[in-house]
Amino acid sequence: MQQSSTYRMQLKERVCLTDATCDEQIIKVSIAPLSGDVLQAFIPGQYVRMGIPKLKEPAPAYFAVASSPYDKDAYEFVIKCVSGMAQKLSELDLGSQVEIEGPMGKGFDLSAFKGKDVILMGVGTGIAPLRSVWRSLIKEREHYGKISIYAGFLSTVHRLLTDEMGDLSDHDIDVSISLTTGHEDWSGPVGYVQHALEDDAPSGENTVVCLAGMSVMVDACTQTLHNLGFNDDHILRNF
């Protein structure tokens, strides 16, 4: 059992999620406890601080957990390999140790909203903490009303986890995927993710919303939700 605020885990698995033609490499990594340790409990949407033991560079960085608290074997993360610790995770050998602090942050605690409809909104790798939420909601599906996901990506080749989201209809979860840049073979919404929300115009009377992504996206979505009659106490952020 871990006792300190920081502890070690190991890189168990790494999968590339983006097409070779995409200009951004995004990976899904699994980080597992060391032998004899257990996975720390967390709230969907929380994050950890991750670094390399005894190394100052690359500096530790924060990553949102993309797996569900019901998944007991490992944490999963969806990470854009831009630089620093994110890039290092794309290069580490499997079995390598990493140093973890957390989980931390508010997360998306929906325990007080049972019986309500739920909307998840995110863009790009902001979908990572929302994946933690929808995987948890699958296990708790009977406790909530209508569940909808609004995910936004730059283009077709930038889409993430769309196969997984495509299977969510089996759990009575609706998914809307928007592209900022449309294509001839794309029949879904084109524009920003809040535009798809405006078109659907959900009622804020009995609905809670989880927002994740860049601050400018969160601000724009919050304004759209206000325009639709949502109160701030029903608009949740994980930080």
Structure described in brief:
This protein is an alpha/beta fold.
- Strand content range: 25-35%
Biggest β-sheet: strands ordered side by side in the sheet: 4-3-6-1-2-5
Named at the architecture level, the CATH assignment of the largest domain is 3-Layer(aba) Sandwich
Outline the low-pLDDT stretches: none
Distance between the ends: 27 Å
Give a verbal description of the structure.
- This protein has 239 residues and is α/β, with parallel strands linked by helices.
- The chain folds into two domains: 6-104, Translation factors (Elongation Factor Tu (Ef-tu), domain 3); 111-237, Rossmann fold, CATH 3.40.50.80.
- 19% of the residues lie in helices and 30% in strands.
- The protein contains five helices and eleven strands.
- The protein has helices spanning 84-89, 127-139, 162-166, 193-200, 215-227; strands at residues 6-16, 26-33, 47-51, 61-64, 75-80, 97-104, 117-123, 147-153, 173-179, 207-212, 235-237.
- The strands form two sheets. It has a six-stranded antiparallel sheet. A five-stranded parallel sheet has the order 9-8-7-10-11, sandwiched between helices.
- The protein is globular, with a radius of gyration of 18 Å.
- The two termini are 27 Å apart.
